[in-house]
Amino acid sequence: MLLRYIRYFLAVAEQENFTRAAERLHISQPTLSQQIRQLETLLDTPLFDRSGRKIQLTDAGKVWERYARQAIRELDDGMRAIHDVEDLHRGFLSLAITPTFTTYLAAPLVQRFHERYPGIRINLTEMMQSEIEKQIGEDKIDLGIAFTPAQFTDLDTTVIFQEELAVMVGKHHPLAQRAQPLSLEDFSQLSFILLSDGFATRQHINDYCSRHHIGLRVVIETNAMNAVEEIVSNSLLATILPEPVAAQRQQLVAVPLAIPLPGRDVILMQRRNGWHSAATRAFIHLMTEGK
């Protein structure tokens, strides 16, 4: 009984409308309204403010929502634990990575995992680090690969390797054959295409420039890694990307800096105190073996 109340309550809280919540739950609107009234009677307090055009949570409702969501997460963990397949002949893993990893890390990593556990189905998603952390905290994805520091406090993180960033140009760029490291002055005179400000990579670049009191001439910003690679390969613009990208892209050349950009720790993120499927535990072991 209480579980049904919780699911009905959360549906109304999310939809802010009894009719839409009832449609989502596949029940009639009067039935849903009656169930919510019964729940409010049981708890001896109103959970929703029905006076406006939108249904809104009362202060008591906001408090109860937090515990209701926690209860649902733990019950879902229990259901998954019951049905977990320990021999890894089948299963499911949801993994999110930041966009720069798509270029050089995703393919070999997924291939290694698939070779060991061919029966495990993987859902690989590319998203910003802030969204990865949010979705792990909400138990929408199992694991994420991103950078320190993680902003959410309810995550466990493990450093898996250190990534270096490098200045890159196309192979026809005048600096493509340069062996002497670029001074900060020369660096600041280049014209750049960079990932936009929402990316962790861009924040790392901005921190470096601020530390050395230099400004970059950014002529193009984009949220598409492929666009960065294509434009740099076919123009006189420079960029800054993870060093392994140049090794895998024949059209790109890394140019040394007199004061290199500092490395950054790559981390594997998971929900703290959450239940982890056999597939999730196997992936964690793959990423941390030998450390």
UniProtKB/TrEMBL annotation:
<dbReference type="InterPro" id="IPR050950">
    <property type="entry name" value="HTH-type_LysR_regulators"/>
</dbReference>
<keyword id="KW-0804">Transcription</keyword>
<keyword id="KW-0238">DNA-binding</keyword>
<dbReference type="InterPro" id="IPR000847">
    <property type="entry name" value="LysR_HTH_N"/>
</dbReference>
<dbReference type="GO" id="GO:0005829">
    <property type="term" value="C:cytosol"/>
</dbReference>
<dbReference type="GO" id="GO:0003700">
    <property type="term" value="F:DNA-binding transcription factor activity"/>
</dbReference>
<dbReference type="Pfam" id="PF00126">
    <property type="entry name" value="HTH_1"/>
</dbReference>
<dbReference type="InterPro" id="IPR036388">
    <property type="entry name" value="WH-like_DNA-bd_sf"/>
</dbReference>
<dbReference type="Pfam" id="PF03466">
    <property type="entry name" value="LysR_substrate"/>
</dbReference>
<keyword id="KW-0805">Transcription regulation</keyword>
<dbReference type="GO" id="GO:0003677">
    <property type="term" value="F:DNA binding"/>
</dbReference>
<dbReference type="InterPro" id="IPR036390">
    <property type="entry name" value="WH_DNA-bd_sf"/>
</dbReference>
<comment type="similarity">
    <text>Belongs to the LysR transcriptional regulatory family.</text>
</comment>
<protein>
    <submittedName>
        <fullName>DNA-binding transcriptional dual regulator</fullName>
    </submittedName>
</protein>
<feature type="domain" description="HTH lysR-type">
    <location>
        <begin position="1"/>
        <end position="58"/>
    </location>
</feature>
<dbReference type="InterPro" id="IPR005119">
    <property type="entry name" value="LysR_subst-bd"/>
</dbReference>
